[in-house]
Amino acid sequence: MCGAQHRKAHSPGQTCEGNCGTKLTSCSCHPTCTALKTCCADYKAYCVEISPYSGTSFGGTDFIVLDATFNISSQVVCRFNNNTDAVGYVDENSTGHCISPLLYETGWIPLHISSDNGTTFSRVGAWLSVHTGKLDSQFKAALVNSTKWQYYGTPNVGGSLEMTWNTSLVRAARVNVELWGYRETGEPYSDQWQGEWEYLYSLAKDQPNSGSFSFLPKPAEKGFSSWELGSVRVSPSAYPDGMWNVQAAWTEDHALAWHLEEKFRQNSAVWALDKCLAWDQLENQLPNFLSEIIDCPCTLAQARADTGRFHTDYGCDIEKGSVCTYHPGSVHCVRAIQASPMYAAGQQCCYDSTGAQVLTADSIGGSTPDRAHDWGSPPYKRPPRIPGQSHWVYDVLSFYYCCLWSDNCHYYFNHRPSSDCRRYQSPSSAAVFGDPHFITFDGVSYSFNGKGEYTLVTSAMKKLTIQGRTESVNGTAIKATQLSAVAMKEASSDVIEVRLGAGHDGLQVLQNQKTLSFTEQSWMDLHGVFVFAPTSANVTVMFPTGAGVEVRLIQGTMTTTVLLPEEFKDSTRGLLGKMNGDASDDLVLSNGQAVQNHSNPEELFSFGASWAVSNMSALFTYDSAYLLDTYYHAPRHDHTFIPVFSVPESPDDPLGEQASEICSGEGSQFCRFDILVGRSPRMGNATRVSFQSHISLVEDLKPVTSCGWLSPPINGKKAGTTYLQGATVRLSCDDGYTLSGSAERVCQQSGLWSGEETSCVVPSMNKL
């Protein structure tokens, strides 16, 4: 280590400058050092935290560097991703500020901060870039009546437009209001394919920062009306027009109907049809992505249960009142989480109030697949993987051309037909809850009260590992354990750990041993994994294979559900069994030997103990003396801890009556164990709830037979838009035609429609 670095350290010894993330000999610059109290003196000065830690990928968010002092004369430069510099500043309190830049990606972006105008970048941190659609509305400028903005110039839509923003987003007394445009150039799917944002023109300059602005739009000059997608930016008027990476409030990206050429205003339907036909021609030349996207779940219940592969579409959410602007008649839509492998395409699935799929062949509100996934996809940065904007260019503007600004939706649906669900296969689910009770993928349930760290699931084929840690229930007197943490990774992904927080009142999420805060964002794109944590009691982890892990905190105890797609069949091992539809071979020791007697608790205990993780393969974080002593410096399975194997049935047990009241029906043995051995009616109740929800989940995920869409006969019509087993579709003919074939067809268990093909024929004269 060079002398200069020694001199910069706050105290003699080692410095974190240039060493963030590593453990040094005399102190540590690793994220665990704060909890372990082993940090080098200058840890917080060089391994920095920022606030806010997240903002829109469009940039313009002003954030401060916490716990680091700057000189008033410091010239701050903030470097994002090692290639994008933004000028920062020092305020009157000697606090350093950065302005986030416009980025063509989402997720955690490496951040390096310089105090000497970019000569050296000694401070290290990370910035979370967020898809504008997933960003809370308080951080965006809002289009007042956004429909009016996006239909402006179509029949009967005119007048002035208004936008509003939170004035604290722009620290200036006076502001400029600018239009920025987005487009993609170069041949699709070639190395020349690029996305670009560009400053177009000013709508107003030197306006008071009042939090609102209205104007009467007019067709853009100088050819700017060829830009059809963009965003309005509000920024301090002290900066020159169109300056990049300054503090700003942006609107969401939207269709720029309001500045399109005069021709659009004169006859928007004709203008839009021309655009629709040009898009139709382009689509005919582009590769077909439909064959490689995942099929939709058949029912709303399946779609909401398959959390490893599908996530709520923010544009149509049953939990937020089903405001489904683009999908009339639907109550809820989901999107496939992962983009398709080759073309980075997306899938969307919408459902009506009966829980049935809504298909474009029946309704304009049907779900449509996407050439570009709305949320983008790693490695982002270039089309079609740019979050939000690539989707707009290929899938949304064309919807405006064909469906919204003109009535030619058949062109759109020809290229974006809903997928039915005939190829959809439900995932299998397994669960751990209470003082650990296990239900395997093939439905075997048992209890294992070992204390230590164990393999829940491992799949060599898919490179997935999920481990669980158990701790004693309420100290040492009670001979039972409970789940306290799960850690997981897939292939080269980040390691994600979810553990019980102090006091068991919330879940804590760690990424590569660093605690993640979900105070600002509930969704995070991490390396090789996504994490969704809408509350501190609810965390879902999603991997590229479609594996999903749900961790829930129920009345102070932790429940974990693992969902694995069909592709994992025959490849899983561990405490959650071998997923192959055969319950008889689920419980196998790590040496391959099968458990002979599933009802022998001692044999089950040996089975569980055999799955203790090795020191080398443990994925957990050890950031307290307790964790180091109990798990890290000790055998991973505590041989000295012998649990109670059977429920003591004592007539004078004061908890006996509560156990009878709380525990009933299927799974009551687990609930009774947790009350009478774990001595906790609260845990017993949580176990009952967890068991019931697992049974419901298995029910929701049951395979459903679909016979596929049935077309109405030519010159006829059909009644019925449900195509699952037992559904009936009635067919009839228009006046002047006679029905040939079946007037009623039923979807059978075989996946085939009953009856014969239906057609409508002109009755021949000689029969009259």
UniProtKB/TrEMBL annotation:
The lineage of its organism: Eukaryota, Metazoa, Chordata, Craniata, Vertebrata. It comes from Scophthalmus maximus. It is found in: Membrane. Residues 428-619 form the VWFD domain. The keyword Cytoplasm does not apply. The keyword Disulfide bond applies. Gene3D superfamilies: 4.10.410.20, Complement Module, domain 1, Immunoglobulins. Disulfide bonds join C733-C760. Residues 268-416 form the AMOP domain. It comes from the Eukaryota. Residues 12-51 form the SMB domain. Keywords: Disulfide bond, Membrane, Sushi, Transmembrane, Transmembrane helix. GO terms for biological process: nervous system development. Residues 705-762 form the Sushi domain. SUPFAM superfamilies: Complement control module/SCR domain (SSF57535), E set domains (SSF81296), Somatomedin B domain (SSF90188). This is Putative sushi domain-containing protein 2 isoform 2. One of its GO terms (cellular component) is membrane.
